[in-house]
Amino acid sequence: MASLKLHGLPMSSCTTRVMICLHEKGVEFELVPVDLFTAQHKQPDFLSKNPFGQIPVLEDGDLTIFESRAVTEYVSKKFKDQGTDLIRQDSLEESTLVKIWAEVESQQFNPVINPIIYQFFVAPLQGKSLDQAIIDENLEKLGKVLDVYEEKLGKTKYLAGDFYSLADLHHMPYIFYFMKTPWAHVVNERPKVKAWWEDISSRDAFKKVAEGMKFGDN
Amino acid sequence: MASLKLHGLPMSSCTTRVMICLHEKGVEFELVPVDLFTAQHKQPDFLSKNPFGQIPVLEDGDLTIFESRAVTEYVSKKFKDQGTDLIRQDSLEESTLVKIWAEVESQQFNPVINPIIYQFFVAPLQGKSLDQAIIDENLEKLGKVLDVYEEKLGKTKYLAGDFYSLADLHHMPYIFYFMKTPWAHVVNERPKVKAWWEDISSRDAFKKVAEGMKFGDN
């Protein structure tokens, strides 16, 4: 039996961020489904694990970890000596480059792609009509962020350097879903970004997880 | 001469996030002002340091670091053995708790306090009228985030545990400015959050930096 329990869903972008990481590290885990439709994540038992009532949550023995980007760092550190080195902690310079570009994902990329994904996939399920003005505003901002990536990826193979790291990995769930929208050209018209996406999305750890990312497929 | 150069401004919340950290660690640095009014941060020289054209940027020899939360982690690691231990890197459990609550600041707190600060302090300077609906929506969300903090701070003295860390520090610039708005009661009506703020804002490292945080004082 796997000692790590990941509470979440295989179609949730934040859950899959952690699952990709666990596969990269070759760590066994048990995925414990959380029933969002009965609001299981807002019940006392779940709130005792994550007071913000969000998936995913990782339980490893007595330690309970929430916020997907904290979980990936924990997994990368705890299983330092197996699988892909995702944080380069032996080098202060390389680990800092990973941290910088992980922060870029968090502060520059996520805030502009999140509203697009929400409008396209989630709003219709909530009976709301898609707000094109929000999409257009954020597509423009996303293009500017990806312009910076295009230049960076002309200098190094991956965002933090010539090595795949958490900085790349953290982007994957949202780009995967974004490529299913009518605006995939925003990625595809930037050749370095397109090649980077094709490279990282062809990794085995990601392909295992992508199979379950069926949100919006119906 | 200090070997670390911090490009930024003493009234900028992201610059001060780094300055507080440098003072906590007892690290000398040179603050190099960036003239935002002439858009110095959008000129090629600055963009070569941070392609997103934002302050702050830390230069330490050949290493150039942007994104304030990446800079604080770098400073905390590089100067591990001096000043306040802000990341607890010797304990995987404690450093993970710091990371969780630093991510809470980044993903839960910052996105809801940021629009309030923007509406109150920045929009008027840009000739825009304050959008009360945006403020109200985000005040409600902020209250819910601080409800979680109130419960957590009833169990531990600081967010990550009974020790001050980056998880607390990262909140300070925005809370400082928020306390100057008409909505400071959102903090003050939560006794544990109020006591936490009074505690962390009385630290010497913060007081040194707060003197320069004059945005909106005119």
From TrEMBL, chains A, B:
Question: What's a single GO CC term here?
Answer: cytosol
Superkingdom field: Eukaryota
| PROSITE patterns named among the record's database cross-references | GST_CTER, GST_NTER
Identify its protein family: Belongs to the GST superfamily. Phi family.
The alphabetized UniProt keywords are: Cytoplasm, Detoxification, Transferase
Signal peptide annotation? none
Q: Does the keyword Transferase apply?
A: yes
List, in alphabetical order, the GO biological process terms annotated in this UniProt record: glutathione metabolic process; toxin catabolic process
Q: What class of enzyme is it?
A: transferase
Protein's name in the database:
glutathione transferase
Q: What reaction does this catalyse?
A: RX + glutathione = an S-substituted glutathione + a halide anion + H(+)
Q: Does the keyword Cytoplasm apply?
A: yes
Pfam families found in the cross-reference section: GST_C (PF00043), GST_N (PF02798)
* Residue span, GST N-terminal domain: 2-83
Q: Which InterPro entries match?
A: Glutathione-S-Trfase_C-like, Glutathione-S-Trfase_C_sf, Glutathione_S-Trfase, Glutathione_S-Trfase_N, GST_C, GST_Phi_C, Thioredoxin-like_sf
